[in-house]
Amino acid sequence: MTNQSTKISWGCHGRRGFTLLPCIVLTSILLVMSLATLRIGHDFRTLTAGNVDRLIASEAAEAALHDAHQHLTMMDDPLSLMSNDVVYEFGSVTGDNFPSGGRMQSKLPPEYQFEMVSAFRYAGIVRITAIGRGLFATTRFVAQADYAIQLCPEDLTDPCERRLRQLAWRERLDD
Questions:
Q1: Inter-CA distances, 76 with 72, 80, 133, Å
Q2: Segment 51-92, tens digit of pLDDT
Q3: Which of 30, 79, 137, 166 has the most CB atoms around its CB within 10 Å?
Q4: Model confidence band, residue 135 (pLDDT cutoffs 50, 70, 90)
Q5: Is 37 exposed, middle or buried (CB count within 10 Å of its CB: 0-12, 13-18, 19+)?
Q6: Containing structural domain, residue 21
Q7: According to the model, what pLDDT value does residue 10 have?
């Protein structure tokens, strides 16, 4: 009996070395798969953070376009824009407030400027260029909107209402 138990014991002991190699291979495969999963997760987090940053910048630019539209309706004569180089910060004319600088908010308040595309005596087209910032000051979203303005002639005796309508909206890519 001792010979058989020795054989059985000797046979099991010889097999232990052969199971080590498959265990090392399986552990290596699991390690590579785990590292790949972590890398994919990191890449998705990076992509999501970039999309959120761009979304915040686009919302800031949209808010600036809305503020500029309000500014145009408040002007007595929007066709007499003196300078195209004036940059207005959000709320500087309308008094609206744009929260910025906090967590998950635009880094800076958005800004806009007007550009006269064409002007006639009582009608014209004004282009608004709005710039919104994301979570970082380096993330910019530039939006433009064109508005047709029709003014009332001064010598008109009938009641006339000034009209302002949006013609186009576009995202402008930075150069």
A1: 9, 9, 30
A2: 888 899 999 999 999 999 888 888 777 666 656 678 888 988
A3: 79
A4: confident
A5: exposed
A6: 2-172
A7: 45
Chain centroid to CA 34: 32
CA distance 44 to 115: 40
pLDDT at 132: 92
- Two tokens at 145? 């909107």
Distance of alpha carbon 130 from alpha carbon 58, whole angstroms: 10
Higher-scoring residue by pLDDT: 65, 136:
65
Note the pLDDT tens digit of each residue in 4-55: 544 444 444 555 567 788 888 899 999 999 999 989 888 888 778 888 888 9
- The DSSP-derived string for the chain is -HHHHHHHHHHHHHHHHHHHHHHHHHHHHHHHHHHHHHHHHHHHHHHHHHHHHHHHHHHHHHHHHHHHHHHHHH-S-GGG---S---EETTTTT------SSTTS-SS--EEEEEEEEE-SSEEEEEEEEEEE-SSTT-EEEEEEEEEEEPPPTT--S----EEEEEEEEEEPP-
Number of domains within the chain:
1
CA-to-CA distance for 171 and 124, rounded, in angstroms?
22
